[in-house]
Amino acid sequence: MHETLPVLLMTRPHAACARFVAELDRAGARFTPIMSPLFQIVQTEAHLPLDGVRGLIFSSVHGVAAWKARDLQFDMPCYIVGQATAQAAQAAGLRPAIVQPTAASLVKKMLDTGVEGPLLHLHGTHTRGDIARRLTFDGLYTRAVAVYDQPELELNETARAALVGDVPVVAPVFSPRTASLLAREKAKAPLLVAAMSEAVALALPPLHIVFLKVADRPDSGAMLAAVQETLDRAHAQMERSGASPDEG
């Protein structure tokens, strides 16, 4: 006899998937992981106009990685969206000056505290928040450069089989773009989604969703809690249907 567990469908790039699965394992969550990234990270060779720049903006760990890969030595403050990005920046030898959970709150904090420009935002080709435009509109000149691309990938056969199976599938979704890519897939299995934000949740239809949990905050800690709650809901659903024990 062995226990059938809910499927955890991870669609972020592999390294991020592995970190998140490890955190869930440490928290004692029970699931069958399937990793099938819906996009990959490819660094670009875009020129960085650094002359006169007095600070950098990072809204993802991938932007930090692209900066680190260029091996540039500039001692300047950086302004950051998200604790994970801040940790990556510190590990890369950068100096976080302001860290905020969202692009909107970062823009407000920077304007309120009198940050001096010009600034440079290093981001991906698919980005949200309009940080550079909003700062420049309010008088803090900021340029934006796409230092990495996020070409999409198709779900692998294992992931697609899970989505049309009978076992509940728990899908953590971290961005509106990932939500829109996932929404193109066919789903027959009971699908339970943990969304990073309301914006992510709005991008999900028309998936066959039986439960939706939006994280309390758009950060990794709140997302971890949301996924744990969603997994608990999947276990309860399986127990009610008598699907938890399986022969083997």
Automatic annotation (TrEMBL):
CDD domains: HemD (cd06578). GO terms for molecular function: uroporphyrinogen-III synthase activity. One of its GO terms (biological process) is tetrapyrrole biosynthetic process. It holds the Pfam family HEM4. It comes from the Bacteria. Residues 20-224 form the Tetrapyrrole biosynthesis uroporphyrinogen III synthase domain. This is Tetrapyrrole biosynthesis uroporphyrinogen III synthase domain-containing protein.
